[in-house]
Design goal:
Elements: H1 3-14, H2 23-38, E1 42-48, E2 54-59, H3 62-74, H4 78-85, E3 89-91, H5 102-111, E4 115-123, E5 126-135, H6 143-166, H7 172-197, H8 201-214, H9 219-227
Antiparallel strand pairs: 1-2, 1-5, 3-4, 4-5
Helix pairs in contact: 1-2, 1-6, 2-6, 3-5, 7-8, 7-9, 8-9
């Protein structure tokens, strides 16, 4: 494990005491760093909306996003059990017999995943979602990596709750709902970029986020400008 990247990640996750804190970019950073640090093939974050129903907040790849969506739509899978119990849930050797979530297991294998580890995003008795780690091979995550993964999830949860405390006029449910709603705009912008430049959706998101950072804009603001056709300064093509 890259100790410098691990240290930088904890600093970045803790650095939410800023005026322009962007929850969606924050959660995508969490999934990206989880992949890089924990030898995962992909990662995703699901958060509860005001009614307590899980929704996708971030994913490191389109495949991970789709399998997260499958779990939610079919009310079946390790991330749902993790959220409901507040405990880590392991789904190993998904291609083998006797799966506790047979429909999910089949969908995960079809998407290329053989192992899933769901880690609760919690602070004491409050569970707000789950960080989910995916592997393409039937190999369990090392206990040390899972401890780091849970620590990342815990720090991210504290950051989200700290953001609520900084904006006391909003409840945590309202804040998370706003973050979840902003994903709609981001998905629309990804689709527009994918069509414009003939890109995969993963590539389109990378281009969108890179442009947001280069122009010092919030990710949601960049996406909204693109969807509304007001982002005239958007790169003519990826990499420019």
């Amino acid at each position: 494990m890259d100790s410098q990247l691990l240290s930088d990640t904890f600093v970045d996750l803790a650095d939410t005491m800023v005026a322009d804190f962007d929850i969606i970019d924050f959660l995508h950073m969490l999934t990206d760093r989880s992949v890089r640090l924990l030898a995962a093939s992909a990662a995703g974050v699901v958060l509860a909306d005001p009614r307590g129903e899980l929704r996708i907040a971030a994913a490191s790849s389109e495949a991970a996003e789709l399998i997260e969506l499958f779990q939610i739509q079919n009310d079946q899978g390790p991330c749902l059990d993790c959220f409901r119990t507040g405990q880590p849930v392991t789904a190993a050797d998904l291609s083998g017999p006797g799966q506790p979530w047979p429909e999910f297991a089949a969908a995960a294998v079809q998407a290329g995943f053989r192992t899933v580890e769901a880690l609760p995003m919690r602070l004491r008795g409050q569970v707000i979602g789950a960080l989910n780690l995916f592997r393409t091979e039937s190999a369990l995550f090392e206990p040390a990596d899972l401890r780091v993964g849970q620590a990342l999830a815990d720090v991210a949860t504290i950051g989200l709750l700290q953001e609520r405390n900084l904006r006391r006029s909003e409840t945590i449910a309202e804040q998370l709902q706003a973050a979840l709603n902003s994903r709609i705009i981001i998905e629309q912008a990804k689709g527009k970029l994918a069509e414009r430049y003939d890109l995969a959706m993963d590539q389109a998101f990378t281009l969108l986020r890179d442009h947001a950072r280069e122009t010092n804009q919030r990710l949601t603001e960049t996406a909204r400008n693109l969807v509304d056709d007001t982002s005239a300064d958007f790169p003519l093509k990826p990499g420019k």
